[in-house]
Amino acid sequence: MSWDISNIQEWSWKEHPIGAVIKAPGNSRLIKTGGWRSLRPIRDEEQCNDCLICFIFCPEMSILVADEKIEKIDLDFCKGCGICAEECPRDAIEIIDEIEAQTKEKSGT
Ligand code: SF4
Ligand code: SF4
């Protein structure tokens, strides 16, 4: 099923289609919720001191840790909420536009 969302900016809550019902618990591992993301966190490895505060606050468990260090942000599940950037005491996470990030990735810049 698909919807025409070309004028979504003009929608009120009444225009939004009724959402799906999830009947099977524990299926969030299968559904890559990062596909909803419109903003992307970028961690500055130089600025980060691996305090792990972002790991504690991330509501999606998208900040992966190995050997008590940040390994990466799992973009398959990160929703781009920005909480990690808000809580980082060293301003080591920048939130950028997702489309812009993808464009940069494709162009290799
Ligand atoms: S909160 Fe900031 S400094 Fe701490 S681990 Fe996360 S990105 Fe690094
Ligand atoms: S933007 Fe939100 S979901 Fe993504 S890593 Fe940061 S806190 Fe987690």
Total helical elements: 3
Count of extended strands? 4
Could you state the order of secondary-structure elements as H and E? EHEEHEH
- Largest sheet: number of strands, sense, barrel closure: 2 strands, antiparallel
Task: Pick out the low-confidence regions.
Answer: none
The CATH architecture name of the domain at 40-99 reads 2-Layer Sandwich
Morphology: globular
In helices, the fraction of residues equals 10-25%
Distance between the termini: 35 Å
Just give the CATH class of the domain at 40-99: Alpha Beta
CATH domain topology of the domain at 40-99: Alpha-Beta Plaits
- Secondary-structure-based class equals alpha+beta
Would you tell me the overall average pLDDT? 90
Radius of gyration: 17 Å
Report the portion of residues in β strands.
15-25%
Strand order of the largest sheet: 1-4
Instruction: Give the ligands present.
Output: iron/sulfur cluster
Explained architecture:
With about 110 residues, the chain is an alpha+beta fold. The chain has a domain of about 60 residues: Alpha-Beta Plaits. Helix content is about 20%, strand content about 15%. Strand 2 and strand 3 form a beta hairpin. The protein starts with about 40 loop residues before the first strand and ends with a helix. One iron/sulfur cluster (SF4) binds next to helix 1. One iron/sulfur cluster (SF4) binds next to helix 2.
Q: Topology, pairings included?
A:
Layout: E1 39-43, H1 53-57, E2 63-66, E3 69-73, H2 83-87, E4 93-97, H3 98-107
Antiparallel strand pairs: 1-4, 2-3
The structure holds iron/sulfur cluster (2 copies).
One iron/sulfur cluster binds at residues 41, 58, 60, 62-63, 73, 78-84.
